[in-house]
Amino acid sequence: MTAEPQQILIVGGSGGIGQALVDELLMRFPEAQIGASYYHGRRGITHERLCWRALDVRDSLAIDSWAGTFKRVDWIVNAAGYLHGSHGGPEKSIRALDPEFLLENIRINTLPTLLLAKSFAAALKQSPAPLLATVSARVGSIEDNRLGGWYSYRISKAALNMALKTLSIEWQHSHPRGCVAALHPGTNDTALSKPFQSNVAADDLFDPAYTASMFIDLLTGLKPADSGRFWAWNGEILPW
Ligand SMILES: NC(=O)c1ccc[n+]([C@@H]2O[C@H](COP(=O)([O-])OP(=O)(O)OC[C@H]3O[C@@H](n4cnc5c(N)ncnc54)[C@H](OP(=O)(O)O)[C@@H]3O)[C@@H](O)[C@H]2O)c1
What we know:
Largest sheet: 7 strands, parallel
Strand content: 15-25%
Order of helices and strands: EHEEHEHHEHEEEHE
Bound molecules: NADP nicotinamide-adenine-dinucleotide phosphate
Number of domains: 1
Shape: globular
Number of helices: 6
Number of strands: 9
Low-confidence stretches: none
Strand order of the largest sheet: 3-2-1-4-5-6-9
Mean pLDDT: 96
CATH class: Alpha Beta
């Protein structure tokens, strides 16, 4: 983007990738204020330019009330997400489908980005180069789906991707200086991927610090003409 961001928000700043993004942004943008949200997890580091906020991303009123505290926001990066938890884990076959688990995936992986876009629309409009990016997942690509399984997570990320693409079209008119991006981080060594790392080659399991650095390289180069794309950490454009 052309202008350096002054106010950046990281949603899910307590997660593996989110925390790494907070660390990297504090280093890269020494003038920027960073707001970061956490939920169950511990708040990470403290820093004079970093302000933590407790937030359940399923709570639309809480997102709206957070948005009300900002006049201008330049970047929002949503790194909150859900793959397994008290409602279950990814399905190997359709026999395992549980409506409540599917809905929980939608509540955490899909809806929050739409709620953020809605609640922060006015604050993002005040930026000379607004950016809304969400960490999606390659398994949300319909074209790239070769293995099957993981119905709920795949569906929630595919729906997220559609939400971001649709928003990018609206932003051509409402936020013409802005950019909307879906991001794939590769496989990162975090709590979310922990139970599924056994088949991942060591070289393919990234330290989130590496991914965060690659994401910020990517995001700083985005222009309005790049809006509405699905990017891998290394700058590759993925099929929807
Ligand atoms: N790790 C990977 O290999 C991988 C691969 C592809 C895509 N992704 C995507 O990358 C994103 C980040 O994942 P990660 O690997 O960093 O996982 P992680 O370490 O488990 O972090 C997940 C984050 O989501 C937050 N979160 C979960 N439920 C929430 C809720 N209801 N309200 C608010 N925050 C909530 C967590 O907050 P608390 O910890 O504070 O509860 C945490 O900050 C996710 O969208 C994931 O789907 C990850």
